[in-house]
Amino acid sequence: LPFTEEQLHRIFLAIIIGGAAALAWFVASLAGVPAMAQQQIALLASDAGFEVRRVKVSGVDRMNELKVYERVLGERDRPMPLVDLDSVRAELLELNWVKDARVSRQLPDTLVVDIVERTPHAVLKKPDRMVLIDPDGNELEPITAANAKGMLVVSGPGSHKQVAALSG
Known about the structure:
alpha/beta; 5 helices; elongated
């Protein structure tokens, strides 16, 4: 054999210790130790002042800014390490006017939200109402006929998908 008896003993000892460590980690994971440790770290961070106290919103021009605050203020008083920035962003992207959103932490106590709004481009005439749409055909909000005066008005099935081609 290319190994001495002493080297084989060391190799087997390393394998046994590695297996025991893996087993210990597996059992700890089943018992919820990593989650408890994360919770404790979050509580320590909160006690040190690292929790959401303020929200700064920028980039809102046409849409109702309160809708952004409604989505984000659910994170208020939450420890900063526990704030899931991706889920907050996903909630913001559900709003009609929001084309993109960036959510970040500004330590120690602020969530910063940068909104990129959709640009109104035309009015889609439906049988019962008129709706403001962007170049991609996404509906933004209902609009009155008086406010739609002077804007491109489209109607008919599938017409909202052709708005970008009409403006070229």
